[in-house]
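tool_call: predict_structure(chain=1)
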Amino acid sequence: MDPSSLSRRLRAIGVQPRQARNASLMDVASELPAYVFSRLLGYCQKTADNWNTEASGFGPDYAADLTRR
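tool_result:
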């Protein structure tokens, strides 16, 4: 199946493909070291470091930020 047609079909039923992809990557980045993340998924090390940093943002600081909103 063509990726663009898959995206259209997912959007038609209410699934946001980009958000689902990013949520999945965030979950993987929070579980794995950046080096393993980069090797498994084919990202450069800097990108893996960025994902890992963002994934760690969902800890106590993230919860504290939400309570301040």
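agent: The helical segments are 3-12, 17-31, 34-41, 45-56, 60-68. Proceeding to next step.
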